[in-house]
Amino acid sequence: MFGQLTNRDSLRDLIVATDAHNQISYHLGFGKNVTRRNLSKTNERRDRKILEDFAYYLIDIARNKRVNNNFEIEGEVSHLILQR
Predict the structure, then answer these.
(1) Coil, helix or strand for 13?
(2) Does the residue 75 lie in any domain?
(3) Does residue 84 form part of some domain?
(4) How far apart are the first and last CA of the chain?
(5) Domain carrying residue 27
(6) What SS3 state is found at 53?
(7) What is the DSSP track for 61-80?
């Protein structure tokens, strides 16, 4: 998820990003040593459905935050349409 949210292009790119934040990588759930091999093996074993469901959950939250009433017309407008 960290790779997706930070727009990483590859495992190598993800490793570079996590190395830049190695002081907090443990708290991000990566452990102490993050390698491309470790990430690759983990991705092979992980059920993709879990990540898919979580992604849709985050998308739903983002969509709900973008909903606004900018184009709604307040008041009674049906009679205006019929008078024309």
Answers:
(1) helix
(2) no
(3) no
(4) 54
(5) 2-68
(6) helix
(7) HHHHHH---TTPPPS--HHH
Tokens encoding 77: 């407008």
The span from the CA of 74 to the CA of 62, in Å, is 26
Tokens 């008041």: give the residue.
75
Q: How far apart are CA 84 and CA 78, in angstroms?
A: 11
In a domain, residue 12? The reply is: yes
Inside any domain, residue 78: no
Average pLDDT (7-20) is 87
Contact 39, 11 (CB under 8 A): yes
pLDDT higher than 80, residue 69? no
pLDDT at 82: 55
Q: Tell me which of 54 and 34 has the higher pLDDT.
A: 54
Q: What's the number of domains the chain is made of?
A: 1
